[in-house]
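Quiz preparation item.
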């Protein structure tokens, strides 16, 4: 029988997907079966397109070339792969290795770090608090990195022994990359280099979180998803994917495109907050994760977010009579409450924010 954690504030006992996978069952529980229209094999959803991939941007190219390539990718896809990004390949391998080591620990070790919907920090197996909701086929580990007052050392696992040191080094390297990407994105918009960073509360104000996703083998991968279709609620996501097993799919032109990872690249995607700040010049895009019957899969997502209590709204430079503000201001604290209550649900939250702005006559917005 699969092991269940105490409720910890969840509406029902939490079952670890890894335990279900390792039980040897030939079928998945009904709780993980998606409606037909949401299944990877659904005839109503275009299956993954062959011979097409998200753009690849060489971060070592000239500043103008990189900015133009990033801007085009953010406008057309909302995704790109960053190569020659400056984070050592050996560190990428170490980060994957220590977190594979964590998920290989005995269940009683992992259960010590069970999370709750209050912060999501720790070892988790579900998003959203709807009782009886359809669940995703995946476990995860979520950590706050910045700002420092949110850091919870007791939530950082002690096993494997080098996990803490490696994760700290890795998250700092990726944070610096995020700051560089923010500047490149701003240049691509035609605004001052530091303008997006300023809208996020500056380098010291921005938030950084890490979520390690673990997708165990699944006996019926055509019936479920590792992660439901969603756009990321934060600012920007820098994803280190499994270098052996594909799984990420991006919606593009009405079809699901399976990302073919470039070795040692990061997959970067626009989150809802950058869509808001850029007045939808850069757009967050729905994506999902499919699972595999033969192979487990691990990925490490670093989320770069605005300061949580700072109202986020379109930059005045990107608003005009011809292109009025599409979004009303909202803090990231308020924004992510929706996601934490409801789990991943397409682009429903950012669309709701746009609808709210549309009801305000002659609305104007400013950012601090």
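Solution:
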């Amino acid at each position: 029988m699969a092991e269940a954690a105490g409720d910890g504030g969840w509406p029902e006992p939490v079952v670890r997907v890894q335990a279900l996978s390792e039980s040897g069952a030939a079928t998945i529980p009904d709780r993980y079966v998606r409606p037909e229209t949401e299944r990877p094999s659904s005839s109503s959803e275009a299956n993954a397109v062959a011979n097409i991939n998200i753009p690849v941007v060489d971060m070592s190219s000239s500043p103008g070339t990189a900015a133009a390539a990033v801007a085009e990718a953010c406008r057309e896809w909302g995704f790109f792969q960053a190569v020659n990004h400056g984070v050592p390949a050996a560190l990428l391998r170490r980060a994957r290795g220590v977190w594979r080591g964590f998920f290989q620990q005995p269940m009683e070790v992992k259960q010590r770090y069970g999370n709750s919907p209050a912060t999501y920090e720790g070892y988790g197996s579900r998003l959203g608090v709807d009782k009886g909701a359809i669940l995703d086929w995946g476990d995860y580990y979520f950590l706050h990195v910045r700002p420092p007052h949110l850091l919870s050392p007791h939530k950082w696992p002690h096993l494997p022994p080098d996990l803490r040191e490696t994760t700290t080094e890795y998250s700092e390297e990726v944070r610096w990359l995020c700051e560089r990407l923010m500047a490149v994105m701003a240049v691509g918009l035609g605004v001052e280099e530091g303008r997006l960073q300023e809208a996020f509360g500056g380098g010291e104000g921005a938030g950084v979180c890490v979520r390690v996703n673990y997708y165990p083998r699944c006996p019926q991968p055509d019936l479920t998803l590792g992660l439901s279709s969603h756009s990321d609620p934060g600012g920007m996501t820098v994803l280190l994917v499994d270098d052996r097993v594909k799984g990420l799919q991006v919606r593009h032109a009405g079809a699901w495109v399976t990302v073919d990872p470039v070795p040692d690249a990061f997959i970067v995607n626009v989150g809802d907050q950058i869509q808001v700040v850029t007045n939808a010049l850069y757009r967050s895009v729905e994506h999902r994760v499919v699972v595999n019957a033969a192979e487990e899969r691990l990925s490490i997502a670093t989320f770069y977010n605005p300061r949580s209590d700072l109202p986020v709204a379109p930059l005045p430079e990107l608003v005009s009579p011809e292109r009025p503000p599409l979004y009303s201001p909202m803090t990231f604290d308020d924004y992510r409450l929706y996601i934490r209550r409801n789990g991943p649900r397409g682009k429903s939250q950012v669309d709701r924010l746009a609808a709210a702005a549309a009801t305000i006559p002659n609305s104007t917005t400013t950012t601090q």
